[in-house]
Give the backbone structure.
Amino acid sequence: MSITADSQQTNLVSNNQEPISSNLDCLWANLGAELVYTQDVTGRYLTFYWQKSESLGLKPEQIVENLNGYQIFGPVEKDTYLERLQRILTSLVPERCQCWFSFGEMLYELELAISPIMPTFASVATTVLVMGRLLQSTVSKTEVNRATTPTKLDLALRSQQHRKLVNQITRSIRHTLDIDIIWQQTVDNLGKALQIERCIICPYQPSSSKVQVIAEYHQPAVSSILGLEIEIDSEPTFAQALTTLEPILVENPQHPQFQQQKMLVVATCHQDQPNGLIAVTLNAKCDGVTADELEIAKDVADQLGTAIAHATLYKELEAARQQAEEATRRIREFLANVTHELRTPLNGIIGFLKLILEGMADDPEEQKQFLQESHKSSLYLLDLINDILDIARIEAGKMELELRSVRLDELFSDIENFMRPQAEGRNLSCHLQMPDTCDQIIVCGDYQRLKQVMLNLVGNAIKFTHEGGITVSADVVRKKVIFRDQLFPGMVRVRVADTGIGVSLDKQDKLFQLFSQVDSSRTRQYGGTGLGLAISQKLVEAMGGEVNFYSLGEGLGSTVTFTVPLYQQPVMVSAPESNSQE
């Protein structure tokens, strides 16, 4: 049987195929080869001759009809075969190999000698001459996949391909410190180069029992599992890979997403500490993974693990740098505001005292007024200094608290004595509400610090409220808590609500940040250091409670709550049955 196809080589192929075919039959037969054909670099047959074509069921007219269309007779491992052709045409060095070819449902193992057809001077080789013989035939594809053992040359080529892949991945991940790009580039390189069904990467934290798929490559026919959270215990292979730091090949994974798929899992690590997982689901046709390929998989994982560690460190350093710059900016702004706040009362004190010393007071009554204003400014200055000193002691861990029993009614009485005249002086209503109980409500805390917290909260409510009023209330939360290894029967929640200017939702997270102010212009308008809420939060947390702020937005008022442990459970007054039924 002889077949010809269109080609630029006029000595082999002609438009008049019949005589050329006859001549080629004699030519190839004289060579003494059982199988002879020529191909270009794409694998397209240019001429074809096989002595055993008729006995093996290969009909010339079928091959001729489909020769340039469907490749009905061709290598099973087409990519490897074409790569070999490319290498031979580039190096101009002949090679010998054994390959499986398919024809319909039939498979043929051929022994081939592939030689480049030498081009003219200064030209590039584009055609190969292949001579070979049949070793075995009529074997099903399934049996071939099970029985075929890769040759040393095939293993060497695969190893070379995989090493090239490792180098490619290494170069890619070294060009960036963006960890998301590193993950995606790795799965894409692995998936496309190895033509696997799916490749996923999951970062790993030792403190977590789960991993999440954050990068994925998959074939179009395979559904995506990007974002899937996987319990490590649900797939023992994951736990084994994280423990041993060795590649693990499993035939039947337990997780539902990987069942009935052969899977290779390897942990990425840095300094022998795992920081991620690579999982590859292999094609059903894959006959196995060699020891050299497992070693290459470990190399990829080690390279990726180091890149992840470096990218993570860079990300953390970048975040720390940004936080430091933001903290520096806040401190500078805070110092500018505090300097202004300190200078204002100090100038007032100096000014009024100077007027008295220079005899500018017209009478004793005016002199007394100057002294009162000076005294008022000195108290304001003292409050500012105390706030700054409190923050310094809190940050240095030197704030000492004396936790003992505190009567809530006594605390509320002191706050009312401060709050009522201040509120009435601004034409604001003032309400204090204690829980209905038969007993005194006693909390556990430092009396002076609790008073300081409430004065801060009430002072802010009065300062930022122009109309309406302020309400201070308390209720008992019957939930047992443990603080400093001591069990308390519940908590008391104190609430300070106002109808003031409120705070927009996007700025409320700044309220409790040290040296941070929601609006510096507001600070200049209303005065103060902006440390009140931050100090209150630190003090309340040191006494076993927590502070929360609520506001629906600007102009809608604010509510601040804080909790403190209940010293003993009080007897609460029951609501009337009629009210409860209503």
Notes: The chain has three domains: 2-148, 158-316, 400-573. The CA atoms of residues 368 and 471 lie 35 Å apart. The two ends are 102 Å apart (CA to CA).
